[in-house]
Amino acid sequence: MKAWLKSGILRKVLFAILFSSLVPLTLLGIIALRGYAEGGRNAIARSKEALDRKSAEALELRAVMVANEIARFLYEREADLQTAALLPKTREAYLEFYSTHKGTLWRVTDAGEVREAIPLYREMAYIDATGQEVIKIVDGDLLPPDELKNVSDPRNTTFKTETYFAETKKLPQGEIYVSHVLGYYVSRAEFEKGRRFEGIVRFATPLFDDQGDFAGIVMLALDARHIEEFTAHIVPTEERFVAAPDPATGNYAYIIDDRGYTIAHPLDYLKAGLGPDGKPLPYATRPEDIGVLPTRLDKIGFIDENLAEIHRRAVKGETGSIQYYWGGHHKFAAYAPIPYYGGGYEEPAGFGWVGISADVDKFHEAANQVEEAIDNETHNLINGT
Fold first, then answer.
1. How far apart are the first and last CA of the chain?
2. What are the φ/ψ torsions at residue 242 (nearest 5 degrees)?
3. DSSP characters for 307-365?
4. Burial (CB count within 10 angstroms: exposed 0-12, middle 13-18, buried 19+), residue 213
5. Are 283 and 294 in contact (CB under 8 A)?
6. Which of 177, 273, 287, 289 lies 20 to 30 A from 112 at CA?
7. Which residues lie closer than 8 Å to 294 by C-beta, 6 or more apart?
């Protein structure tokens, strides 16, 4: 017996038993780790999907909130117009109204960031039944009688082609006329030299005498910067708001009107604009036109068809999100229609829509951080086993 214990047979038997026990345990360990890794990958996929969905919903909600704020602002301008229609037709009353209606603009100047109270309106006018301006304020100044014009002739209007007097004259009492954003086009070359778009939106309503006869119109020209202000500082990052978003990052907000034209954007050369003769310029139809002509999203499929698709959806009254390519960035954008239906803007398109865009890498940032954390935990567990 002792001889057998001292022989090599026992060692061989013990080794065989140990080996036969360790192999299954090792295999089970490998299988378990592989299962953990696979589970980790599945968890990553589920987490990324959930976080991407959460990010999309958050941006969509933000777009809806901004769109509703713009609509409310535009309806408030209607109320201003109806108030103006009741004012005494005196220079003093008009100047008092003009000077007390202001909004705050957050701007970057040579001195730094400033918030300024700026008049809501560039122009205010009482125009008689013949189209003759009787009282007119332009940028805070009352025009002298020799500068007042008859705007029944479009050539005498600010942009030389406007028909707001004739359009407003057709309306019944209490109805209003609202224009699209009007302003001379700013090219990319001009923008890079410091020129900026100066736009207005005209609101006008007819006046009637005691006999019910047409007696003229009251007109307010809203400074379009106050519309742009709703999107001018939005970024889809933790900062949420900045004085001047960097368009090179792909993270900013913008506004498209019901026709598909850009009316608010960090890059003014994308905005709708008039030529020097006051007539609308044609829209860009080729990549090389961008910066030379305005952009129209329903006609910009040559950049990415999804850009046109956003507009098609939004003017149907839909809210949602989509991905597209623009300016060297793969972008995620949430969009929401602006529910303003006054002055000729009809349902479901309304005044247009708000877009909030994020560079795709930035959009996926939260999900990617979760993926990295799970990867690190899996790696540490495997290496530590």
1. 41
2. -140, 160
3. HHHHHHHHTTT--EEEEEEETTEEEEEEEEEE----TT--TTTTTEEEEEEEEHHHHTH
4. exposed
5. yes
6. 273
7. 185, 261, 262, 270, 271, 272, 273, 281, 283, 284
Q: Which of 4, 36, 124 has its CA nearest to residue 381?
A: 36
Residue that has been written with the tokens 């890079």 in this structure: 192
Written as one letter, the residue type at 327 is G
For strands 177-178 and 102-109, give the pairing: unpaired
pTM for this predicted structure: 0.83
Using CA atoms, how far residue 50 sits from 53, 144, 284, 357, 367, in Å, is 5, 64, 38, 19, 8
Return d(Cα 136, Cα 139) in angstroms, integer.
10
pLDDT by 10-residue block (mean), the chain, 385 residues: 53 53 56 53 51 80 97 98 98 98 89 90 99 99 98 98 98 97 98 97 98 98 98 84 84 96 97 97 96 94 92 96 86 95 96 93 59 57 54
Look at residues 111, 113, 268 and name the one whose alpha carbon lies nearest to residue 188.
Answer: 268
